[in-house]
Amino acid sequence: MSSYDKAVENLLQAIKQHDSVRYFQKAEQKIKAFPELEQQVDKMKAYQQEAVLYQKIDKQVAKEKAGEQADQLQKDLSELPIVKDYRDKMQDASDLVQYITNSLETKINEELSNGKR
Which residues have a Cβ under 8 Å from the Cβ of 23 and sit 6 or more positions away? Predict the structure, then answer.
């Protein structure tokens, strides 16, 4: 295993052990414990797809109705505490990954501009 591969593996392990990632994984498990939520999400996606289809065939009233139903389901889901918690934890984990990505990009660009390879 090269030093690069070792560094990547160490980084992955550190990310997996970070609190924000672990909290997100726990929140994700809680969400998965409620199949009703997934059914509601699937129903919302179906309404969204219907709205797109109705728009393509120029059925404006049907498009608006399907869009309203999708929007209402999305609003209802967004107000659930378990969904709010999941989104908060997902945002924290995403922020961590974004921070690491930006830091790596900055360091690599500095190294390249300084002639190191």
Answer: 89, 92, 93
